[in-house]
Amino acid sequence: MKTIRMIVLLLLAMPAMAQRPIDFMPVEWPESGSIVVPVSEGETLTGLAAELDERTGGAIAMAAVEGQFKGEKGQTLTLFGIKPYARIDLIGVGGETVNRVGAEDFGGLAAGLNDGTSGSTVQILWSGVDRESDATAARVAFGYRLGDYRFDRYQEERLDPDARGRVIVLSDDAGAASQFSGDLEHLAASVYLARNLSSEPGNIIYPQSFVDRVRARFDGVDNVKIRVLDEKDLKRLGMGAHLGVGGGSSRPPRLLIIEYFAGGDKPTLALAGKGITFDTGGVSLKQGKGMWMMKGDMSGAAVVSATVLAAARRGAQANVVALAALAENMPSGTAIRPGDVLTSMSGKTIEIDSTDAEGRLVLSDAVYYAHTEYAPDLLIDVATLTGSVGRAVGPDYAGVFSLVDELADGLLEAGRVTGEEMWQLPLNDRYFEQIKSEIADVKNGGAGGAGASVGAAFIGSFVGEGQAWAHIDIAGVDYTEEPKPTTPKGYTGWGVRLLDEYLRRHFE
Questions:
Q1: 3-class secondary structure, 360
Q2: Active-site option among 286, 314, 348, 504
Q3: Which among 34, 72, 37 is positioned nearest to 53, based on CA atoms?
Q4: CA distance 17 to 58
Q5: CATH code of the domain in which 78 resides
Q6: Are residues 170 and 284 in the same domain?
Q7: Are 274 and 301 in contact (CB under 8 A)?
Q8: How many percent of the chain have pLDDT more than 90?
Q9: Are residues 206 and 158 in the same domain?
Q10: Is 15 helix (H, G, I), strand (E, B) or coil?
């Protein structure tokens, strides 16, 4: 039975959709089949597009005029039956020098255009455009993999993995194949893990099954140690806030700890993620409309777990630990109530203003534990914490909070480089004053409309003295209704690329 259970877990840990194999070859014009060609913005065709036009007897220029295609960034034009090719996809890369994100977006758009195609090989040419040195063919392949994601595990009609065909990236970029297979493919798989965990229904992913799913993905990975604190451990450690959130559910809470120490005497990065596997709001019950999305309220925990997976699978010389604070927030006779007082691991008491402000409660114990257990050089927590962050900065940015501007600047730069951008929001004494309680040390709500800042202040109140810390609120970006080149509609896995980049820059 144990063997069968492990097989099931391994199958569930696999990406939801069958992935196309991606290969790399030197630039050479394909003789036939399906091709994807980058086009720089302009009134006339240049580079590969001009050469393709010559090969097709001027058909490309004519089609571009008729389709009002000028190579603007993100613009696409698909042509069928222009000999010798069965299909031609033209993708605009704009008039500026193509950067890393631009290369990834190009690959993601190619995946979207070829979504659902079965059997045929997709041949992507990546040459002849003005691009930065890091806008490599490996980045194109990485973008293709991200854009190719679909969560179709529960759909009867799924593409046969053996029938999806290959992707061939044609480029003379030296080392592109090794960059992809030894690094970026692991990063893409980690983004997939975060997306899959958030996409799974609440009856499939709950605290213990989250642990099982993640543990299976780390099977056989070097320098990784996984520890799991159950309800008895949480009680022994005095994690009353974490236990309080999970107390209303028949599925008990867990604290998943993933340690990856391969950096010798290098500094340590600790990542804490909110892992509410389903959030009803507890006794402070949410409205029914849209509650289904609360299966994704564990996206922070998914992101930090996936970040360590990416680092470990590529063999990063770094020290990083992830803490996934897992609980199910349910209403019942054993659930916490507004007005209750909980005692956190730090000893601080918390008055419950709303049971729907639960993420900050589990994180209060997690960040304190991370500080006391690991004394990290930097502690970052990631959470779908507040709806107010989306109202403040919209769907294109996460909110970042820190008392150290230099730290926030480093995270903002990593966001710009990866395309997972953030906006720094205020965190001052006013917000810490708002969470003071008349009957306890703090309360988990606050007056006023700056809910994202108040939530950050609450978590910050449990960060140890002198601890470098940042809080990232991803509530506005963890799910997207509008597909983007590398993030199809659904749960995005937002933050894995950002944290991975920050880890590379500051801890490797």
A1: helix
A2: 286
A3: 37
A4: 38
A5: 3.40.220.10
A6: no
A7: yes
A8: 91
A9: no
A10: coil
286 catalytic? Reply is yes
Q: Is residue 376 part of a domain?
A: yes
Q: Are residues 281 and 402 in the same domain?
A: yes
Per the annotation, the verdict on 360 as an active-site residue is: yes
CATH of the domain at 343: 3.40.630.10
Considering 142, 174, 206, which residue would you say is the last residue of a domain? 174
Q: In a 3-state reduction of DSSP, which class is residue 382?
A: strand
In a domain, 3, yes or no: no
Are 331 and 388 found together in one domain?
Answer: yes
Per-residue pLDDT tens over the stretch 81-125: 999 999 999 999 999 999 999 999 999 999 999 986 666 899 999
As a whole number of angstroms, the distance between CA 162 and CA 122 comes to 15
- Whether residue 8 has pLDDT greater than 50: no
Q: How far apart are CA 75 and CA 70, in angstroms?
A: 8
| pLDDT at 251 > cutoff 90 | yes
Among 115, 146, 174, the domain boundary falls at 174
Q: Is residue 435 part of a domain?
A: yes
In the three-class reduction of DSSP (H, G, I as helix; E, B as strand; rest coil), residue 101 is classed as helix
Number of H helices, E strands in the chain: 17, 19
Expressed in percent and rounded to 5, the helix, strand and coil fractions of the chain are 35, 20, 40
As for how many domains the chain has, the answer is 2
Domain check: are 322 and 420 in the same one? yes
Structure tokens at 232: 């008895």
Helices (H), 14-148: 47-55, 59-66, 100-113, 137-147
User: Of the listed 360, 443, 484, 497, which one is catalytic?
Assistant: 360
Q: Find tokens 């349910």 and name the residue.
A: 330
From the list 203, 196, 197, the residue with the least C-alpha distance to 250 is 203
Type of residue at 212? D
Same domain, 191 and 168: no
Exposed/middle/buried for residue 67 (C-beta within 10 Å: 0-12, 13-18, 19+): middle
Report residue 125: phi and psi, to 5°.
Answer: -95, 130
Domain containing 391: what range? Answer: 187-507
- Cα separation of 30 and 416, whole Å? 35
What is the maximum span of the chain, computed from C-alpha positions, in angstroms? 81
pTM (2 d.p.): 0.95
Share of the chain above pLDDT 70, in %: 94
Structure tokens at 38: 């980058």
The pair of three-digit structure tokens given for residue 305, joined into one six-digit string: 């777990």
Contact between residue 295 and residue 278 where contact means Cβ atoms under 8 Å apart: yes
